[in-house]
Design a protein that fits this description.
heterodimer; A: 441 residues; alpha/beta; Rossmann fold; 4-stranded antiparallel beta sheet; 27% helix; globular; B: Ammonium transporter fold
Chain lengths: 441, 369
């Protein structure tokens, strides 16, 4: 019995064996950290430190810029060396603080103090989650406290903890589930309490049998918790597809999971929330899978936010062979880096380095209308037509063909025999459609 | 625009990255020091960074492989004449493709094998008696007029091989329809004879009722290909095997061929039940003429057929209905080519009206109700 029956999807080579049995190791404190101020989806955080300031580990260095925003904390104690523009891992140059660690790794007052979650009400938990800068750690970096605040008219009944990790190569969530099982479940229990749901499903793809086993054992003692082994198909971990596979509920086009009464949180987010509530530990570190054929020793690295990619690569033995592509995130949706100068943010789930021969070349021949992309699209779109419209700058047509429902999973480009850069076209078209909509008011 | 994809200008690429959707514009950071100095080191492009490896050339080659048994069989039954037609056709298709691409300053793309496939398909739609100039003319119309003048592979609205065939059929009817040869391999001497569909039509006109052989032996002859016809029309069995191979390899979908053949069978079946003296047995209709090569190899041409699943069903059924209309009441004995070309013209419209259902679209309506 497979639990995967969403429409479309592809089966890329997962290559998870490179790192999935390697326990999480912590990288030694780098010589400098580059901490970006825009680390969440929504409004960027506002810096509150200046050059020369001494900061302690966990001290707020940037405050929330609004409701859909989170504070950012110093990942260690040290000095703010400079505040300036640096290449960010999402491909744009962005503002960041450069912190020179003092080596003491000394906590800010009040941080990392154990507290009982007994007696905390939902609002207090949300406040703690916000104050500790928790965002979705699957890569989307949407502020968690916002997700935990559905409008009163949305009745929630299921919490899904997303351990599908359907991106090829990445094993960070896998290792977290094996090594921090209880922490994840405690975090899940907190989320469930905040939104008042009794049913918690831990969804894990079947290619992680050890994670499924430990999770099954661990949930046995918890009421309302269950573990679902999901078929291995990309993008199983995409929210809408995951919800459909588990519950057969379809998130309405343009809608959110809360519209069908479901909240989805990544396993890493659950663990971070647990640490925040129980130990008052802000989100200043995360597990990054450094992997791929272009890296000497693939590892699951526990890295401070701000750790430069170059430091990660060196910690993993350096580049191997003709490393030609460096990806922040997984190879299906991650962002290609032009150098190793960017640094880990809260959304950096992996650093995948591919060799020349593995780098897919997208040369964009004409669409031959084979229709493979229609079979692969999990959102039921017509990527063939969309890409042709986008190419001819017929953006209103792309809107009519529901471009805004595209989740940019990349399945269409993955199967395209003409190697058309589909997602590239679609991102552009979406931006243009947003412009048109703004103009129309 | 596409040249950037290869990372020649990586500095320009970040615009494609999924920037966070800001609720208000990202405030420009105040200090604007010199741009971070970094030397491009890696290939930069939009995600995804993996590919399943399938290429257009691979797909074309699979179709060539699927057609090979029927093509080789045509040499077996029609002899070296068939080989001559095949070779002239493929060679002229490749030459026309190369010349067009040269003149139009397009990259030479013979390696995608699409011209070779067009040449092969056109050859299989010609009689073994075709003179060389007929074959070359057909390929000129197929490659230069129907394909390259429209922009090359991917842009042609009509199936190139069929355009070539139909131009020849209309311009040189004698060469295309009146010089059939059956082969001595099956016991008869090489004679000029009419195709089964022509026999049907002529008997209906002269005798007032159809006069065709529909016994078991006749049907078996039709199935294995012991009859007059174009090179590729004859062996239904080998064509079907090739088609199944393509469906198994997921090169084509079952939808167009099944609907096409099914529609021909159902429609001719209805008329057969009404009046078997005027209308032939549906099985006869299904296994004669160019139905199998048309339904499996020509109507399924990606570029000229719908991409949507529902669209494929409509397209296939439409091809079947038009084929039957022409066979039963048209001036030509065979209508497969015309039917496919007419449906090619309808393809953009079909695609437009059979947009796939977006995930979650139904529930929006329910929620609104």
């Amino acid at each position: 019995m497979g639990r995967s029956k969403f429409f479309g999807g592809v089966h890329p080579s997962y290559n998870k064996g490179l790192a999935d049995s390697r326990a999480i190791v912590e990288i030694p404190m780098p010589e400098k950290l580059i901490v970006f101020f825009a680390q969440n989806l929504g409004v960027p955080s506002q810096p509150v430190v200046k050059k020369g300031d001494e900061v302690k580990k966990g001290q707020v260095i940037a405050e929330s810029g609004g409701f859909v925003s989170t504070p950012i904390h110093a990942p260690t104690s040290g000095t703010i060396d400079s505040i300036g523009i640096h290449p960010s891992p999402v491909g744009v140059d962005a503002s960041a603080a450069v912190i020179i660690p003092d080596g003491n790794d000394e906590w800010f007052e009040g941080c990392s103090a154990e507290r009982s979650s007994e007696g905390l009400d939902a609002d207090k938990i949300k406040e703690i989650i916000h104050d500790n800068g928790i965002v979705g750690m699957g890569g989307a970096t949407f502020p968690t406290h916002v997700k935990l605040s559905p409008p009163a008219d949305k009745k929630m009944d299921i919490l899904v903890i997303n351990g599908a990790e359907c991106e090829p190569y990445l094993t960070a969530d896998h290792r977290l589930m094996v090594e921090h099982t209880e922490g994840i479940l405690d975090g899940a229990a907190l989320f469930a309490a905040v939104i008042g749901v009794g049913r918690v499903i831990i969804a894990i793809e079947k290619n992680k049998p050890d994670a499924i086993e430990v999770m099954r054992k661990a949930v046995a003692s918890r009421d309302g918790f269950s573990v679902e082994a999901m078929d291995v198909i990309y993008p199983q971990g995409a929210e809408k597809q995951l919800i459909y596979a588990l519950t057969k509920r379809k998130v309405p086009a343009g809608g959110l999971p809360m519209d069908v009464g479901v909240l989805v949180q990544n396993v890493g987010t659950a663990l971070a929330a647990c640490d925040a509530v129980r130990y008052n530990r802000p989100l200043i570190e995360r597990v990054v899978t450094v992997t791929g054929s272009g890296i000497k020793e693939p590892k699951n690295v526990l890295a401070r936010v701000g750790t430069r990619f170059e430091d990660l690569v060196n910690f993993c033995g350096g580049l191997e062979g003709d490393a030609a592509k460096c990806i922040n995130g997984g190879p299906m949706m991650g962002v290609a880096q032009y150098s190793l100068d960017a640094a880990v943010t809260k959304g950096t789930s992996g650093l995948v380095i591919l060799r020349q021969e593995e780098v897919a070349q997208f040369v964009s021949d004409a669409c031959v209308r084979c229709g493979r992309c229609l079979d692969a699209c999990p959102m039921g779109l017509n990527p063939s037509a969309l890409s042709i419209f986008a190419e001819r700058m017929r953006f209103e047509d792309t809107n009519e063909y529901n471009i805004m429902d595209c989740i940019e999973c990349g399945c269409c480009a993955y199967v395209c025999p003409s190697r058309r850069p589909m997602v590239h076209h679609f991102r552009r078209a979406k931006a243009e459609v947003r412009k048109l909509q703004k103009k129309a008011g | 625009m596409e040249e950037n994809m290869e990372g020649k200008n990586p500095e320009e690429k970040p615009a494609a990255a999924p920037e966070p959707v800001a609720e208000k514009p990202v405030p420009k950071p105040k200090p604007k020091p010199k741009k971070a100095e970094v030397g491009p080191r890696f290939v930069v492009s939009s995600s995804p960074h993996m590919h399943d490896g399938r290429t257009v050339a691979q797909i074309m080659r699979l179709v060539l492989i699927a057609l090979a048994p029927a093509a080789l069989f045509s040499i077996y039954i029609f002899g070296l004449d068939a080989l001559r037609v095949l070779m002239i056709s493929i060679a002229s298709a490749l030459i026309f493709e190369a010349i067009s691409q040269k003149i139009m300053k397009r990259p030479l793309a013979l390696r995608d094998s699409s011209a070779m496939l067009t040449g092969l398909l056109l050859a299989m739609n010609l009689p073994s008696t075709s003179p060389w100039w007929l074959i070359v003319t057909g390929n000129f119309f197929a490659i230069v007029i129907a394909k390259q003048l429209y922009g090359g592979l991917g842009y042609n609205p009509f199936n190139p091989a069929l355009v070539g065939r139909v131009v020849l059929l209309i311009s040189f009817p004698v060469h295309m329809t009146a010089r059939w040869v059956t082969n001595s391999r099956f016991g008869t001497d090489a004679v000029t004879t009419a195709t089964p569909l022509t026999q049907m039509k002529e008997s209906l006109a002269t005798l007032g009722h159809i006069d065709i052989a529909v016994g078991k032996d006749a049907i078996i002859d039709l199935l294995i290909g012991n009859r007059a016809g174009c090179l590729g029309e004859t062996s239904v069995v080998l064509l079907a095997l090739g088609g199944l191979f393509l469906i198994w390899k997921k090169v084509i979908s079952w939808r167009i061929p099944v609907m096409f053949i099914g529609a021909v069978w159902a429609m001719t079946g209805i008329f057969y039940l009404i009046d078997p003296t005027h209308y032939a047995n549906p099985s006869f209709h299904v296994i004669t003429g160019g139905l199998f090569i048309g339904a499996l190899f020509m109507a399924t041409d990606y570029v000229t057929s719908p991409v949507t699943k529902k669209g494929m069903l409509i397209f296939g059924a439409g091809c079947g209905v038009i084929t039957v209309l022409i066979r039963l009441w048209g001036a030509y004995p065979e209508g497969v080519s015309f039917a496919i070309l007419l449906m090619n013209a309808a393809t953009p419209l079909i695609d437009r009206y059979t947009k796939p259902k977006v995930f979650g679209a139904v529930d929006t309506r329910k929620a609104a109700a």
